[in-house]
């Protein structure tokens, strides 16, 4: 049985689109059961609907605590019998209960080479501004498991891009996004084929067919 995937988003959802495309073209043996957003206007919800995928907006304002808001997301994932959760531009942290219930079953994509330019406050263009201002010669993207810390879980895949002298945060963002759209589908494929093992904080990837 192909794994059922739940995708959490907050924005445009280009990474979500890369998953949809790579499921439709057969690269990933999985199924997106539901897309959940904490923002009503997130274009990713529209992308999901266009492909007949259940798209749900969950408004934190309707819940009197952060925990209850997270419980509502988990209920939605359970109703869709989700096996793995992909954070694809989801701009909120998860409750401890959420992380515990899906240990090594939640992955996130971050637009830098972790442990650089990550953690609290590093999101969106800020990540790339920090990389450009630091003067690094390479940056990249990281797919990792989600644990209780901010961007601290075991790393599944990383890929680099070259940062040129005249690079801007915007141009770097575009470059990195391009590799994100290959890296995230590859990580999801690896998980759907059960081709990895987590050994303490190291991830061992088995050879794919
Ligand atoms: C990506 O850069 C991702 O690495 C980060 O948020 C951004 C989401 O972009 N976590 P999109 O919504 O997938 O276009």
Mean pLDDT score, rounded?
Answer: 97
Small-molecule binders: 5-O-phosphono-beta-D-ribofuranosylamine
Task: Report the span from N to C terminus.
Answer: 18 Å
Largest sheet: 7 strands, mixed
Strand residue percentage: 15-25%
Q: Which spans have pLDDT < 50 for at least 5 consecutive residues?
A: none
- The radius of gyration computed from the alpha-carbon positions, rounded to a whole number of angstroms, is 16 Å
Q: What would you call the shape?
A: globular
Count of DSSP E strands? 9
Reading side by side through the largest sheet, how are the strands ordered?
Answer: 3-2-1-4-5-6-7
Structural class: alpha/beta
Number of helices: 6
**Helix fraction by DSSP (H/I, runs of at least 4):** 25-40%
Give helix and strand order, one letter per element, not per position: EHEHEHEHEHEEHEE
Descriptive notes:
By secondary structure, the protein is α/β, with parallel strands linked by helices. The chain is 35% helix and 25% strand. The protein has six helices and nine strands, in the order E-H-E-H-E-H-E-H-E-H-E-E-H-E-E. It has a seven-stranded mixed beta sheet, with helices on both faces. It has a two-stranded antiparallel ribbon with strand order 8-9. Helix 4 links the parallel strand 4 and strand 5 (106-110). Helix 1 packs parallel to helix 6 (169-192). The two termini are 18 Å apart. The mean pLDDT is 97. It binds 5-O-phosphono-beta-D-ribofuranosylamine (GRF).
């Amino acid at each position: 049985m192909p794994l059922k995937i739940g995708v959490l988003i907050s924005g445009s959802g280009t990474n979500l689109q890369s998953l949809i495309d790579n499921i439709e073209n057969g690269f990933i043996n999985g199924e997106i059961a539901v897309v959940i957003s904490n923002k009503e206007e997130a274009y990713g919800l529209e992308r999901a609907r266009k492909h007949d995928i259940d798209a749900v907006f969950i408004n934190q304002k309707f819940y009197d605590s952060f925990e209850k808001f997270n419980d509502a997301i988990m209920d939605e994932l359970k109703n869709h019998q989700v096996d793995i959760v992909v954070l694809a531009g989801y701009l909120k942290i998860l409750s401890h209960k959420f992380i515990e219930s899906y240990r090594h079953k939640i992955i996130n994509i971050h637009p830098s080479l972790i442990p650089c330019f990550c953690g609290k406050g590093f999101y969106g263009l800020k990540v790339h501004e920090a990389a450009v201002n630091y003067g690094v010669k390479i940056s990249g993207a990281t797919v990792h498991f989600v644990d209780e810390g901010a961007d601290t879980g075991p790393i599944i895949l990383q890929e680099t891009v070259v940062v040129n002298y005249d690079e801007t945060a915007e141009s770097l963002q575009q470059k990195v996004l391009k590799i994100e759209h290959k890296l995230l589908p590859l990580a999801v494929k690896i998980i759907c084929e059960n081709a990895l093992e987590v050994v303490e904080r190291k991830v061992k990837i088995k050879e794919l067919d």
